[in-house]
């Protein structure tokens, strides 16, 4: 025999308490504590063995044909999904308001319908007329694309049964409600119940389901933490409002790699995938200028070529200014300190401005060497060749460290037409047609950089300090 007793569990951090509280004592989340029933066995009791509903079989005897990826028709999204959506899978796409989630998924449904497969787009936020206006503006109209404006869960399930689609898009899960469950629309209880019901319907019918999710002020997916555990794939759709570039980043994927990135351009006429996004992060100029350096970063598994710009100016006040955009401020300060200590570049007395081109965000330590090269180029006023890339992590001791994925980075640099790469010592797997200069320390790397700049310049100039006469040579 077993008797039931009550516990209260937080849906965010799974913390268990003996009584109900409005705010979780562990993670501090409001309204996330729910009552759960726990069966406790009575001492000395025995339980009957329950026969399984189906026998266990060898894994090799199971056919995998029903779990193949079905392409959506959008290459960049298929890249992140691992080849497309899987029948019966549930995908959650989350992002900030106005980033383009509805536009992207409307195009996914259109591409799906244009290939002869029926798609159902359910919106709880917009009317059918509003969706039709967006479809006319972006050219996403097809007879096999069905629209429904519903916020009731049972009505949505009824539409799925009546239309018999092969792809369902629900925009969004926070606007759906179930009359069988208590709580307000968008609350923890409602979101969990709606997602569980839609997931069960997708698994039963074998129809792939794509859910749109909202995010909080911190950028996390709104709703209970268990929402991410219920679905098969979690994608983040991100981008700057001041830029046309949008990125779909994989966070969880049960059917493929979870570190892929897809690039898109959001325009007035719709959204388009960008197969080669490296050109978006490079500044187009006729001649190289001082204070610029090019690097190759890895965003997930995708190599991207980016440009870093640096500017040193005389301070206007007693305290020099530091302005950084697209680069981690702490790493930029660390690299400036390393140049000051080991390369003896008097950078601390000047205003330092660092920025990336095209709104690119560099969080990979492999961009340290490019940041140092840009600062040194601005310091000595010597342009670097436009055909050279700098890849490497800078240590506090002035040493250069190798980074992961160097083979992919160098291959991308060679594909983009770069001829020279400045990298840490010990780098192997150099692609043909690319000249690799290896340096063990930051000082050796700056010497290579100085030689590259002087060989390119028609009138070589000796480096000098900004706070000293031009005739005084730098130590490196």
UniProtKB/TrEMBL annotation:
The keyword GTP-binding does not apply. GO terms for biological process: recombinational repair. A motif (RadA KNRFG motif) lies at residues 252-256. Residues 351-476 are annotated as: Lon-protease-like. GO terms for cellular component: cytosol. ATP binds at residues 95-102. Residues 454-476 are annotated as: Disordered. Residues 66-215 form the RecA family profile domain. HAMAP family: RadA_bact (MF_01498). Belongs to the RecA family. RadA subfamily. DNA-dependent ATPase involved in processing of recombination intermediates, plays a role in repairing DNA breaks. Stimulates the branch migration of RecA-mediated strand transfer reactions, allowing the 3' invading strand to extend heteroduplex DNA faster. Binds ssDNA in the presence of ADP but not other nucleotides, has ATPase activity that is stimulated by ssDNA and various branched DNA structures, but inhibited by SSB. Does not have RecA's homology-searching function. Plays a role in repairing double-strand DNA breaks, probably involving stabilizing or processing branched DNA or blocked replication forks. This is DNA repair protein RadA. It comes from Mycobacterium cookii.
């Amino acid at each position: 025999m077993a008797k039931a007793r009550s516990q209260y569990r937080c849906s965010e951090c799974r913390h268990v308490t003996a009584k109900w509280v409005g705010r979780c004592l562990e993670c501090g989340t409001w309204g996330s504590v729910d009552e759960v029933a726990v069966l406790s066995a009575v001492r000395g009791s025995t339980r009957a063995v329950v026969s399984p509903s189906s026998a266990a079989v060898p894994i090799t005897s199971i056919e995998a044909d029903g779990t193949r990826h079905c392409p959506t028709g959008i290459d960049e999204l298929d890249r992140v999904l691992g080849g497309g959506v899987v029948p019966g899978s549930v995908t959650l796409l989350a992002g900030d308001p106005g980033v383009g989630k509805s536009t992207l998924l409307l195009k996914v449904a259109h591409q799906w319908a244009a290939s002869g497969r029926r798609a159902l787009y359910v919106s709880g936020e917009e009317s059918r007329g509003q969706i039709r206006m967006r479809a006319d503006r972006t050219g996403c109209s097809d007879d096999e694309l069905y629209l429904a404006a519903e916020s009731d869960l049972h009505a949505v399930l009824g539409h799925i049964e009546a239309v018999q689609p092969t792809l369902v898009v629900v925009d969004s899960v926070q606007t759906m409600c179930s009359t069988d469950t208590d709580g307000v629309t968008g609350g923890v209880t409602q979101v969990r119940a709606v997602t569980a019901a839609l997931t069960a319907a997708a698994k039963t019918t074998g129809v792939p389901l794509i859910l749109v999710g909202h995010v909080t002020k911190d950028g996390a997916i709104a709703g209970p933490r268990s929402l991410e555990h219920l679905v098969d794939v979690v994608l983040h759709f991100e981008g700057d409002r001041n830029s046309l570039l949008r990125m779909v980043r994989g966070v969880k994927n049960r059917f493929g790699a979870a570190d892929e990135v897809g690039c898109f351009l959001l325009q007035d006429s719709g959204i388009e995938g960008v197969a080669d996004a490296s050109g978006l992060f490079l500044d187009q100029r006729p001649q190289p200028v001082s204070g610029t350096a090019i690097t190759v970063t890895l965003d997930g598994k995708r190599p991207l070529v980016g440009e870093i710009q640096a500017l040193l100016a005389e301070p206007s006040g007693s305290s020099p200014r530091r302005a950084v955009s697209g680069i981690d401020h702490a790493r930029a300060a660390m690299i400036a300190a390393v140049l000051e200590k080991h390369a003896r570049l008097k950078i601390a007395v000047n205003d330092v401005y660092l920025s990336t081109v095209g709104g690119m965000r560099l969080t990979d330590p492999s961009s340290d060497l490019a940041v140092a090269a840009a600062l040194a180029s601005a310091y000595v006023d010597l342009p670097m060749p436009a055909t050279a890339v700098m890849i490497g992590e800078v240590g506090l001791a002035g040493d250069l460290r190798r980074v992961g994925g160097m083979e992919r980075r160098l291959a991308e640099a060679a594909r983009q037409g770069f001829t020279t790469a400045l990298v840490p010592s010990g780098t192997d797997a150099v692609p043909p047609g690319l000249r690799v200069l290896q340096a063990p320390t930051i000082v050796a790397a700056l010497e290579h950089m100085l030689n590259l700049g002087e060989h390119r310049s028609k009138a070589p100039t000796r480096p000098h300090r900004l706070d000293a006469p031009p005739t005084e040579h730098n130590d490196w």
